[in-house]
Design a protein that fits this description.
The protein is mainly alpha-helical. The chain has 7 helices and no strands. The chain folds into 2 domains: 1-65, no CATH class; 69-155, Tetratricopeptide repeat domain (Serine Threonine Protein Phosphatase 5, Tetratricopeptide repeat), CATH 1.25.40. Helix content is 84%, strand content 0%. Helix 3 (67-86) runs antiparallel to helix 4 (90-103), helix 3 (67-86) packs parallel to helix 5 and helix 5 (108-121) runs parallel beside helix 7. The termini are far apart.
Length: 155
């Protein structure tokens, strides 16, 4: 067998592997690399910035299965909510907390923070729901228990 025929056989085998099984694996590998690239960009961006949010959302769009990116994105939104809350921008804080809970629904501090904002806005029923959710997610989270105690004394 000559050099030309062995190259043709190798090319045929590679082509068959790529078209039958390897192409989907190649695309999956590419999306994982792209997700990793955007996560690295997010890690190097200024903390709690919209640029960082953009990079993490691009990372999740490329590879939604990375739990660390979900957690990091939730932390950024949570940090933004705290900053908005300190400036009495409660609507923006609630929106950021909503986004944080979209990224990580089990983030007990975000439920607690929403409960305190609802309390400050006078919506005591919503405040109770959020504080109870925080306590249910993390029974040892004492701020949620303190908030519920404050609501009980409010009556």
């Amino acid at each position: 067998m000559g050099l030309f025929s062995s190259n043709v056989i190798l090319f045929t085998i590679l082509l068959r592997l790529l078209t039958e099984t390897g192409l989907s694996g190649f695309e999956q590998d590419q999306s994982i690399r792209e997700g990793h690239y955007w996560r690295e960009r997010g890690l190097s961006a200024p903390r709690s910035s919209y640029r960082q949010i953009h990079f993490y959302e691009r990372s999740l769009a490329a590879d939604p299965g990375v739990a660390a990116v979900h957690l990091e994105l939730a932390e950024i939104y949570y940090d933004l909510a705290i900053a908005y809350g300190h400036r009495d921008l409660f609507d923006q804080a609630l929106e950021s907390l909503f986004n944080a809970l979209q990224a990580d629904p089990e983030l007990a501090p975000a439920h607690y923070r929403r409960g305190t904002i609802y309390f400050l806005l006078g919506d005591f029923a919503a405040s109770r729901r959020e504080l109870e959710a925080a306590r249910r997610l993390d029974p040892s989270y004492s701020p949620a228990e303190d908030g519920l105690r404050m609501l009980r004394h409010r009556r």
